[in-house]
Amino acid sequence: MKPTKKTKVKRLPIRGFYDKETVYKILDANFICQIGFIHEGFPVVIPTIFGRKGDELYIHGASVSRMLTDLAKGISLSLNVTQTNGIVLARSAFNSTLNYESVVVFGQAELIVDENEKVAALETITNQIIPNRWQEVRLPNAKELKVTSVLKIKIDEASAKIRTGAPHDDIADCDLPIWAGVIPIEKHYGKPIADPVLKVGIPLPKSVKCLIK
Amino acid sequence: MKPTKKTKVKRLPIRGFYDKETVYKILDANFICQIGFIHEGFPVVIPTIFGRKGDELYIHGASVSRMLTDLAKGISLSLNVTQTNGIVLARSAFNSTLNYESVVVFGQAELIVDENEKVAALETITNQIIPNRWQEVRLPNAKELKVTSVLKIKIDEASAKIRTGAPHDDIADCDLPIWAGVIPIEKHYGKPIADPVLKVGIPLPKSVKCLIK
Asked: Over chain B, what is the mean pLDDT?
């Protein structure tokens, strides 16, 4: 993708990336995005689950939701996915920062009308959170599909911003007797908690075993 | 805080909270927010570090940053903080969801001009990430303060949305031989990685020891 006026990383341009591989890798490692849009003249930011397949992102929700109804009109949106990987402690407050991977997408959403495309998009969203979970669950029925809207967003204006590694202190500060380094931030999955009403004898599914392994 | 037209949780209103205690608890457990604003007619969402003290949020960045320059004009903004606590696996795709805590704030930012107030706000931001780190670092000098803008956002229009607990399947689905439950999502701090150029004999500081304990 070419950096555009909107996606070009202006602050610390060395941290900016525009290639699909980098952008998609960050998207694929996450499942929550923040969507910004304009409602009655005011900016609104709402978090939601997303899925990616090819050059499209999918989001879903209740058909009557304000965000989906607004976005289905094809208004402009901005979308952010951010993953924090570490706290970077420099010797100075000024050079202290975070290690992170972040993607910003600009575009419009489009309501998916075709039922097969809609079901496939819901599969992508479900499997973005837990790969292959779709193959295990009771699939949506006609009534559920009717009250659910699914939107697609073409990823054609996007950029990533990444910071990794050690702190960068001013040379003069490196002599100070202050600890500097990185505290990694790690995401773990805890021990699965079975539904209190789960029938006896149903084992943990393959999808969950793979996720928490 | 009173729910306003903007902050009232419309979808699943049972998940909506408007009391300061709930809203501030979520804000205080996090340090990344997504800020939405309108730039040249388009919505933009940018992640940034924040700190909270009293009824104010603080954000900072390079004085020349587009976001800070725009926001310093007092334009409307929306801000979201989201923490995901678990994957909720229902027997049906339709009832599968996440456990999360999320806050949305609407308001305007104001540039902090007073130098003491600015330094105090930077202290709040630094300590939001690691409590008491400010007491250990080399504090900002005049030159660093000059190239940094700090903005304050009064929290007077805000709401929280929270989901906790087990999946809620349709009664008919509960007989299906499908596993249901919650996979907790846990954030951990990893082993601190000292700066490769850290002088020998500087121990881990108190702030880090408390954080990773």
From this structure: 95
pTM for the complete prediction?
A: 0.95
CB contact under 8 A, B45 and A65: no
The answer to whether the CB atoms of A46 and B133 lie below 8 A apart is no
Task: Classify domain B13-212 by CATH architecture.
Answer: Roll (2.30)
C-alpha to C-alpha distance for A153 and A139, rounded to whole angstroms: 23
Q: How far is A164 from chain B (nearest CA, A)?
A: 12
Query: Is pLDDT above 80 for B120?
Result: yes
Minimum Cα–Cα distance from A175: chain B residue = B199
pLDDT along chain A (213 residues), means of 10: 80 82 97 97 97 98 95 97 98 98 97 98 98 98 98 95 97 97 97 97 97 91
CA-CA distance, A193 to B30, in Å (whole number)? 25
Complex-level ipTM: 0.94
Token pair, residue B184, equals 């907790």
DSSP bridge partners of A167: none
A191 touches chain B (CB under 8 A): yes
- B74: which 2 tokens? 């007092």
In sequence order, what DSSP letters do the residues of A80-107 get, joined into one string? EEEEEEEEEE-SBSTT-EEEEEEEEEEE
Residues 6+ apart with CB under 8 A from B213: none
As a whole number of Å, the end-to-end CA separation of chain A is: 35
**E strand map for B32-96:** 32-39, 42-53, 56-62, 76-89
Name the residue ranges covered by the structural domains of chain A.
13-212
User: Looking at beta carbons, which residues of chain B come within 8 Å of A85?
Assistant: none
Amino acid found at B170: D
For residue B39, give the chain A residue with the closest CA.
A6
Which among B65, B184, B198 has the least Cβ separation from residue A181?
A: B198
Whether residue B183 and residue A212 make contact (CB cut-off 8 A), yes or no, is: yes
Nearest Cα of chain A lies from the Cα of B19 at a distance, in angstroms, of 19
Cβ separation B104–A45 shorter than 8 A? yes
Integer CA distances (angstroms), A137 to A133, A146, A205, B72, B79, in order: 7, 18, 10, 49, 35
Query: According to the model, what pLDDT value does residue B36 have?
Result: 98
Residues in Cβ contact with B177 at an 8 Å cutoff, skipping those fewer than 6 apart = A199, A202
Question: What's the angle, vertex CA B100, arms to CA A49 and CA B109, rounded to 5?
Answer: 85
- A residues 49-78 near B, CB within 8 Å? 49, 61-62, 64-66, 76-78
What does the DSSP 8-state code read for residue B126? H
As given in the structure block, the two tokens for residue B22 are 């709930």
